[in-house]
């Protein structure tokens, strides 16, 4: 018997629409910001610094944001963060100095520190019981559709129209997301976790207890950290690949971003089919590891392609296993942890992920400063995504007689 559509749930629909507005505008900003920096200040350290500035606050202030979300519930802080981001985006077009721009980007990063975990909490609260894989695939599909259409739209507006209209448009999208969430009716007991007194030490102790009780989390987190290094390096890499290796205008790099999103939409079809067959933890974990490895190998191969068209195809192919890995990751977390423990897990794992992503962005300095060729730089960062997966796959392939107890991660 077919289950009713997820979109028939009012709570799911509200969060889905808000996520659509936010994801589309966020991916537009991912493309628009480097284009704006390149047009006004160049593609050197200024570009790398601006990308890193948006991520840095999420590393430093994530525990504070987590405590705010736990006390106030996620909806109000997320709405406030969306409004703050909108105000910053209106101010971007007035800047004349790179330092001023980076302060604005830093403020947007502070708002992201609240918005990202808050939306994850809202997502988890509206997922119907037993439909985790399907719901997570839906949410990831929204994000990847935004990745397909957002960057090219931003490129078109930045090049054909003007930044003076592009950034206010992004601001309006963030305001729409805030209005959608703020006017929704909260479901009692879902969107407001019980207030607790928490601090860094308390969160860390609770997280360590979770990891000890659920060794599977290590299998999820360690490959994900390597993936984040590669993902952080991917943005400047695609800019340089497009410009230096293919000799194309900077706006064409948005096509490469969109290609990865297109692959993820195809991956959503695969994930939906897998959702019907991957029902136990071991199957989901195997799918996560294999998909992570395939995604890492396809992105590594980018450095060998001779044309923009082939790079586009390869990014589409790589986006398919990326989507499967994402859906399996969030499904396993939701299966293993309660909503309250998910909040703790994200409070510490998200800043850690962001730290590794910033590390990936900053490795771009190795190329921009002339210390590494583009190929050497990409080999280094791609290895970070591939190598952490291999030990777990080797353990999976080994005889399982000694690792079948409840504590076994595989």
Folded structure, characterized:
The chain has 410 residues and is mainly alpha-helical. The chain has one domain (6-397): MFS general substrate transporter like domains (Growth Hormone, Chain: A). 78% of the residues lie in helices and 0% in strands. The longest helix is centred in the N-terminal third of the chain and has 32 residues, at 10-41. It is globular. Keywords: Cell membrane, Membrane, Transmembrane, Transmembrane helix.
Concise structural overview:
By secondary structure, the protein is an all-alpha fold.
Per-chain topology:
Elements: H1 10-41, H2 45-60, H3 62-72, H4 75-92, H5 98-125, H6 132-160, H7 163-182, H8 200-213, H9 216-245, H10 253-275, H11 281-300, H12 308-336, H13 339-362, H14 364-368, H15 374-386, H16 389-397
Helix pairs in contact: 1-2, 1-5, 1-6, 1-7, 2-5, 2-13, 3-5, 3-13, 4-5, 4-7, 5-13, 6-10, 6-12, 8-13, 9-11, 9-13, 9-15, 10-12, 11-12, 11-15, 11-16
Distance between the termini: 32 Å
- Rg, please? 21 Å
Helix amount, in percent? over 70%
| Protein structure class | mainly alpha
Number of H/I helices: 16
Mean pLDDT: 82
The number of domains: 1
Task: List the keywords.
16 helices, 410 residues, Growth Hormone, Chain: A, transmembrane transporter activity, mainly alpha, transmembrane, single chain
């Amino acid at each position: 018997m077919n289950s009713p559509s997820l979109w028939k749930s009012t709570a799911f629909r509200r969060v889905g629409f808000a996520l659509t507005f936010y994801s589309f505008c966020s991916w537009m900003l991912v493309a628009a910001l480097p284009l704006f920096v390149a047009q006004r200040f160049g593609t050197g350290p200024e570009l790398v610094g601006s990308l890193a500035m948006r991520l840095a606050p999420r590393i430093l202030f994530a525990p504070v944001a987590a405590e705010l979300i736990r006390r106030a519930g996620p909806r109000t802080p997320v709405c406030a963060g969306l409004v703050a981001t909108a105000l910053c985006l209106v101010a971007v077009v007035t800047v004349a100095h790179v330092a001023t721009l980076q302060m604005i980007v830093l403020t947007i990063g502070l708002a992201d520190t609240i918005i990202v975990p808050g939306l994850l909490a809202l997502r988890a609260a509206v997922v119907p019981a037993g439909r985790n894989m399907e719901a997570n695939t839906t949410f990831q599909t929204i994000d990847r559709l935004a990745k397909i259409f957002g960057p090219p739209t931003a490129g078109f507006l930045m090049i054909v129209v003007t930044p003076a209209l592009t950034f206010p448009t992004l601001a309006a999208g963030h305001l729409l997301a805030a209005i959608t969430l703020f006017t929704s009716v909260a479901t009692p007991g879902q969107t407001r976790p019980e207030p607790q007194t928490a601090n860094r030490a308390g969160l860390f102790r609770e997280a360590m207890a979770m990891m000890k009780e659920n060794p599977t989390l290590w299998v999820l987190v360690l490959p994900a950290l390597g993936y984040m290094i590669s993902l952080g390096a991917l943005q400047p890499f695609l800019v340089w690949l497009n410009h230096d290796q293919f000799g194309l205008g900077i706006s064409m790099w948005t096509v490469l971003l969109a290609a990865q999103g297109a692959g993820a939409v195809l991956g959503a079809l695969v994930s939906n089919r897998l959702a019907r067959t991957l029902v136990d933890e071991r199957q989901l974990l195997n799918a996560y590891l294999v998909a992570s490895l395939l995604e890492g190998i396809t992105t590594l191969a980018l450095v060998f392609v001779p044309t923009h068209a082939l790079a586009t195809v390869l990014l589409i192919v790589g986006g398919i296993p990326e989507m499967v890995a994402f859906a399996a990751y969030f499904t396993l977390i939701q299966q293993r942890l309660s909503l309250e423990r998910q909040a703790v897990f994200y409070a510490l794992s998200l800043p850690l992920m962001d730290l590794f992503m910033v590390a990936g962005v900053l490795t771009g300095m190795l190329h921009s400063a002339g210390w590494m060729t583009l190929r050497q730089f990409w080999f280094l960062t791609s290895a970070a995504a591939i190598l952490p997966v291999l030990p777990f796959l080797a353990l999976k392939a080994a005889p399982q007689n000694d690792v079948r107890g409840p504590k076994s991660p595989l």
